[in-house]
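Memo to structure team: turn this sequence into C-alpha cells by end of day. - J.P.
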Amino acid sequence: MRRRRQIRTTRQRSISRTAVAVAALALVATACGETSSDAAKDDDGGGKKSGAYQGKGIGLAYDIGGQGDQSFNDAAHSGYARARKDFKIGGVDMEPGDGESSADKTQRIEQLARQGYDPVVGVGFIYAPAIQDVAKKYPDTTFGIIDDNTVEADNVADLVFHEEQGSYLAGVAAAKTTKAKHVGFIGGVDIPIIHKFEAGFVQGVKSVDPKIKIERRYLTEKPEEGGFASPDKGQDAASGQLEAGADVLYHAAGLSGQGVIQEAGSQKKWAIGVDSDQYRQKALAKYKKYILGSAFKDVGGAVYDLTKSVVRGKPMTGTQRYDLKSGRVGFSDSNPEYRRMTDVVAAVERAKKDITTGKVMVKIKP
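Reply from structure team:
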C-alpha cells in the first residue's frame, strides 16, 4: 500500500504541473480580452456549442479510493480511456485527496471546466454539490455525475443505475451456492445508495430460501471515515462474518472490497464482487478462483455514452437510468467455476427474466 500511495502522489504532482501550465495560458488569454468562457463559445449568437467538437477532451474526477480500486473508479476509468481512444480526444483524470473538503471537490470540478474539458464527470454522488455550483458558471460545458439524480440543470446529465437489480442476482447466486445456508453482505458506508445493494441482495437470497442466515455489516457511517478506501476494514469485516459461519460474502465497498475478497479467498470461501467484473482485475488475480461473480454496473459505458454525445454535438442531459433490461447492470459470469454450476446459472437467469419482465420488483431499501 505504501508503494501505491507513492505512485499516486507522483501522478497527482504531474497533474498539478499541467494544471499550473494551463492556468498560466488562461491568464494570458484573459489579459488579451478573452475569458475561458468566451473561448468556448461559437459566434452563433446563442452561446451554444455547434459544429465540430471544441473541447480539450474529457475531464474525470475520481471518487474516494481513486483509480486502482479495482471497482467503481476503475469502471469509470475504463469508459474514459475508451472514449479518448475511439474519439481521438484528450483528457485528464484527477484523484481525490485524503480527508478533503467539499470545497476541494468544487475546486477540482471547476478547474477541469475552466481548462476547457468537456464533458466534466464527477465519479460518485459526493460530487453533487460541486457540480450543482460549477455547472451554473459554465453553461456551455456538459457535466456528468454518477450515482446522483439531484442535480437539475440544462447542462448536467445524472447517470444513475438500478444497483438493486444486479444485487438481487448476486443474492440468488449466493443462496444457490452456500453450503452453510449462511451468507454475508458488507457495505462500505451506511448511506442510501449502498442500502440499495443490501436490499437487492437480501431479497435475492430470500427468494431462494427465506431460512438462509444473512450477516450484514457497514464499515463506516460517513464516506470520509474510509469505508470505501480501506482494504484492512474490509478484511476485518470479512474475517468476522466468515468466523460467524458465512461461506459466501458480497461486498459493495469500493477499494475496501479488495480486503473482503482477499480474506474470503485466503479462507477458500466464495466472494462476490461489485461494479466491475472483479474476476478480471489483475490486482485480485491471486484470489480470482474464489470470486463467484460480480454484480456489475456499466459505469464505464455511461461515461463513454456521455462523452460520445458531447463529441457528436448533441450533449446528453437530464436523468439517464441504466438497468438490467438494457444490459447496463447484471451479474458477470467470467469465472469458469461459476459456469459449471448449471443449477446456479439457471437460477440467476430465471431471476434476470423475472426482473426484466416485471414479474419481480426489486426493493431499494432493506
